[in-house]
Design goal:
The chain is 34% helix and 16% strand. It is of the alpha+beta class and 363 residues long.
Length: 363
């Protein structure tokens, strides 16, 4: 990973192949980087362009990408343009794909069925027969026949429209939240997350509330079932930490309240026996923040081993990895669990979990 400083306080990861410098911080659902500054949310690529042109960009103008990559903050890939110029560039480069609502029948039919209708009509089947066969109105068939369906559009079960990317991701074509995760309304009128519905269809059962639909591709808008896996919230956080997606304040792109010096102080105080509640109050943060620091879910040094979570999401790290290995060797040698627990000053359940590889799986 090559991190490049674009302007003071703004950094990104350099893509050596395209020359793009991709923002690694918070983004809108459409991929544009954002940052909370002086009490308001600002677009990162717009800030970068303003530094390039030495002045504030007039509200009538956009910060346009020549690379068509919303996450890019490379000043050489940014130009100022009016709304008309920006739209014109999109049309010229064929970037403006049809909106979900502009594809007739998509609420009832899959992309494959829409293509079948077009093929059958060209083969000589009349509209009335097609309408009866697919259970839609004659008017809908007419609109389907007039629609240009992009080749890279597909339907992901149970019935979500997606756009296939070169990297294998299938980007959801519908409403998204601020983090980029697809949203839809259930039959009961409740808002739900698309990735959870897709993963439930893949697994054959509804995910428990304590389980997350996690991405192997780290792309929130992706709904490719092969890129999704079920994990607890702690496992999701640990996965993000291992991939460098959780950053402390030592990283200039973060809005963390603590720095490394404070984190080391916190761990020393906890090791000395201070309660998490008291430490949290002393540093004006939540107890969950102190919990994650204690168990190295966040603020993890590069290359540091991370404990494996239990099914319920809690982390048991009363022993080191070396001690856990020693426990397993003693059990193999015939030592009783009760005796080992007494020697290490932990409960028998901790030793049972180590023996059964519920915890310390990496040992």
């Amino acid at each position: 990973m090559t991190i490049v400083t674009v302007i003071p306080g703004i950094q990104g990861e350099l893509d050596l192949e395209t020359g793009c410098i991709n923002w690694q911080g918070s983004k809108y659902g459409n991929g544009y980087g954002r940052k909370w500054l002086d009490g308001k949310t600002l677009l990162i690529h717009r800030l970068v362009l303003e530094s390039k042109i030495a002045g504030f960009l007039d509200s009538r103008y956009f910060a346009c990408h020549t690379c068509d990559n919303p996450s890019c903050i490379n000043p050489e890939h940014l130009i100022a343009g009016s709304a008309a110029e920006n739209t014109g560039q999109m049309m010229e480069r064929d970037r403006k794909t049809p909106r979900r609502k502009s594809i007739p029948g998509i609420d009832k039919l899959s992309i494959q069925q829409l293509r079948e209708i077009q093929t059958k009509y060209l083969s000589g089947k009349i509209k009335n027969h097609l309408a009866k066969e697919y259970g839609v109105q004659h008017e809908t068939i007419t609109k389907i026949l007039q629609t240009n369906i992009p080749d890279n559009f597909t339907t992901v079960s149970p019935r979500f429209l997606g756009e296939i990317q070169d990297n294998g991701c299938i980007m959801f074509q519908g409403p998204k939240d601020g983090a980029g995760y697809g949203k839809y309304f259930t039959k009961e009128g409740k808002q739900a997350t698309v990735t959870r519905a897709v993963l439930a269809e893949k697994l054959g059962y509804e995910l428990p509330t304590y389980m997350d639909a996690c991405h192997t591709c780290d792309t929130p808008s992706c709904i490719n079932p092969e890129h999704l896996w079920a994990g607890t919230r702690s496992q999701n956080l640990l996965d993000a930490s291992k991939k460098g997606r959780t950053q402390g304040k030592s990283h200039p792109l973060s809005n963390a309240k603590l720095d490394w010096e404070q984190v080391r102080e916190i761990r020393q105080k906890l090791a000395a026996g201070e309660r998490m509640k008291d430490v949290a109050e002393a540093y004006s943060v939540g107890r969950k923040t102190i919990h994650d620091i204690k168990y190295h879910v966040t603020w993890k040094q590069e290359g540091e081993e991370v404990p494996i979570t239990r099914m319920g999401g809690s982390i048991d790290r009363k022993l080191t990895f070396a001690q856990a290995q020693d426990v397993r060797e003693r059990i193999k040698a015939g030592a009783s669990i009760a005796k080992i627990a007494g020697e290490f000053g932990v409960s028998s359940s901790v030793i049972y979990d180590i023996r059964n590889y519920v915890t310390y799986k990496g040992v």
